[in-house]
Design goal:
The complex is a heterodimer.
Chain A lengths: L1 H11 L13 H25 L14 H6 L2 H10 L3 H17 L5 H4 L1 H28 L5 H35 L2 H9 L4 H13 L2
Helix pairs in contact in A: 2-5, 2-8, 5-7, 7-8, 8-9, 8-10
Chain B lengths: L1 H19 L7 H20 L12 H14 L7 H17 L10 H11 L1
Helix pairs in contact in B: 1-2, 1-4, 3-4
The chains are: A mainly alpha, B mainly alpha.
InterPro entries (chain A): VKOR, VKOR_sf
GO molecular function (chain A): oxidoreductase activity; quinone binding
Subcellular location (chain A): Membrane
């Protein structure tokens, strides 16, 4: 029984090629969640200003630049479209990174690929697009926002940190597809439904690192 | 099951919302929505603890869509705080409702599969 538990435990924490570590390990995911948490707090702070729950917003570099960006016509238009301040929506996106980063075991790249890919979509494309938009704000709005730039840098770091796990999950799904050429098997693997083929694909990937 | 606890707390928040946001007595739709959705959130999140209804939290995604739609479509921006509250709770709920039960552990079927192959 002890050997069986030890085997399962070692499988859960096994390194996954091409990396020398497990991208789904807590040591990999917790820093992402902490950084996303910091970005959530910063974005929430800006949202509080847009809701006028605080009178001013801190900006040590551009003076009233942050306030002008948060009060800009672009921000007001976004507010009208969404119904809540755009900074609040940003806070939700970062909170989503943290929540999806926390969910799943240390082998979620195989057991819950849907969760890893959802996490990847939240972190990578949305993070990169929002960073580009923030960087463009200097030309569109005409002012720079220090806190927005901080969150943009955080987005890029998060995308870089999250990439390995998404890559491994996609590699696993590709291997299941290569073995079966069955959309059904691929769908099962994506949804985290165990099958002989999915089990074998995961084992093969882990064995390559040993 | 931390996600289910967060959902229950969001339900409690919705039950308190009419008093926090001071709904007027003629705003019946706001009262009904907040109280009914608050109860729904609590019931579905607690139902997820029972093995036979462990998937009940997926229904909370429907509740999340409802709350977002109710908040966004029930007025023209700038939305009143009570409607923004619905929108925000809906977004939070949608985020948390997709988190599986026992999220830190491998899924039950994988645990059974691994046990059967290692024994």
């Amino acid at each position: 029984m002890f050997d069986q538990n030890a085997q399962i435990d070692s499988d859960l924490n096994a390194a996954v090629p091409p990396y020398s570590y497990n991208p789904s390990a807590w040591s990999q995911r917790v820093p992402i969640c902490i950084l996303a948490g910091i970005a959530t707090v910063i974005a929430s702070y800006m949202a509080l200003y847009q809701w006028r729950l605080i009178d001013s917003v801190w900006d040590p570099v551009f003076g009233d630049g942050t306030a002008k960006v948060l009060d800009s016509k672009v921000a007001q238009t976004m507010d009208r479209w969404i119904g809540i301040p755009d900074a609040a929506l940003g806070a939700f996106a970062y909170l989503g990174d943290a929540v999806l980063g926390m969910a799943g075991s240390t082998r979620r790249w195989q057991y819950r690929p849907w969760l890893v890919l959802l996490f990847g979509i939240d972190v990578i494309p949305l993070g990169v697009v929002s960073s580009v938009l923030v960087i463009l704000q200097g030309t569109v709005v005409g002012y720079w926002c220090f806190l927005c730039l901080v969150t943009a840098v955080i987005s890029l770091i998060l995308a870089y940190w999250a990439y390995d796990e998404v890559y491994v999950s996609l590699s696993y799904l590709w291997r299941v597809w290569s073995k079966t050429h069955s959309w059904r098997e691929l769908g099962y693997a994506f949804c985290g439904v165990p099958s002989e083929q999915a089990l074998a694909a995961g084992r093969e990937i882990v064995e390559e690192a040993r | 099951m931390w996600a289910r606890i967060v959902e229950s707390m969001l339900g409690v928040w919705l039950l308190m919302s009419p008093f926090i946001f001071r709904h007027t007595s003629d705003a019946t739709h706001l009262w009904i929505n907040d109280l009914a959705m608050g109860c729904t959130l609590i019931v579905l999140s607690l139902a997820s603890y029972w093995s036979k209804t462990r998937g009940a939290h997926w229904l909370l995604l429907v509740a999340a869509v409802w709350l977002i739609g109710f908040g966004r479509l029930n007025g023209t921006p700038p939305l009143q705080p009570a409607l923004q509250n619905n929108l925000i709770v809906g977004l939070l709920l949608g985020m948390v409702a997709i988190v599986p039960n026992e999220a830190s552990l491998p899924p039950v079927r994988w645990r059974q599969q691994e046990n059967s192959t290692t024994s």
